[in-house]
Design goal:
The protein has 384 residues and is α+β, with helices and mostly antiparallel strands. The chain is built from 5 helices and 26 strands. The chain is rod-shaped and about 130 Å long. The model is unreliable at 19-25 and 377-382 (pLDDT under 50).
Amino acid sequence: VRDEPGLSPMGMKLVPKYADATTGSEAGVIHVDPVQVQNIGVVSVVAEIEDISRFSRTVGILDFNADRITWVNTKFEGWIEKVHVNYVGQDVQQGQALFEIYSPELVTTQEEYLRALDYRASLEDSGRPETIRQSESLVRSTRDRLEYWDITAEQIRELETNRQVKRRLTVTSPSDGVVAEVMSEALEGMFVKPGMDLYKIADLSTVWVHADVYELDIPWLRDGQPAIVSFRNDPGQEFRGKVLFLYPEVSPDTRTLKICVEVPNLNRRLRPGMYADVMVQGPPVRKAVVVPQSSVIRSGVRNIVFIDLGEGRFEPREVELGVKGEGHRLQILNGVGGGEKVVTQAQFILDSESRIQEAIAKFRERTASTDEPAAQPPATEHVH
């Protein structure tokens, strides 16, 4: 700061600064000539009061809906003699034949069931209630054994009607879907044991998306929150789903938490294994003070906004930030009220101006404490 115009010790031209621009009753308020405000392109907007939500963005991988997967196996041993469905990707309907199997146990049980029916029929006119009850119990236990082996009611009725023991039993699909896995491409002739998984049938009407979110976003996530899934190969298409559940632990390697999003897949365009962009909408904050992100100057320690007081007057304020919403919007917890005007462009120039005026004020304090007071303060000062 100098009392006379000229050059600074660094050789740069000193700019005049009027004394009344750094003094006055408004502490901390900077004054800029209205013409200069227009020249530097200062733009201000009104802080609005509105609902705002936090959005968490991440990437995920599509997978089958585990609740809609059916494994096809047998509860008896035998040999597969004929295969009707033997490749992955084939659509199947509930009740559609998958394969035919020969099992000595099934043949024996069918024969026992027919003999039990004949025995009960022969005792109907005997007039001995206890013997009739025993025959009915025998029929029921033999039928239960067939049902426990997943023999359908229709197949049992056919056996009762035709009275013919089938050497091979047809195993059908328990649900609609697509074949996701087959134990072997050549099932014919295989010997299978009870519990051996032969087919994996998946219903693709819905799919799951497994995505990883950072620890910072975990407090904002809840089951049932809406989510939007999109794909980079089809940016115009969005699929809306919901957060189904959160996994119980954070990965120690990536420091992320895995979440599961359920998405409808009515046209079956979504296929497991695809990569997806996932956006989860957090719970809304009602009646929040919201400003554009561009209005906030972040120093790493403090967050500053400039309030436009009109007539070239601007007040820097430290603010506390809240939720970051869509459209580059920020919630202000403290420091700005609804209806106040905040600067969104050229605020860095105003920040420099504020620092200059602060430096001048400190310089005056130092000179006032060391020098004799002047009879008349200079009309202008020159600063670099």
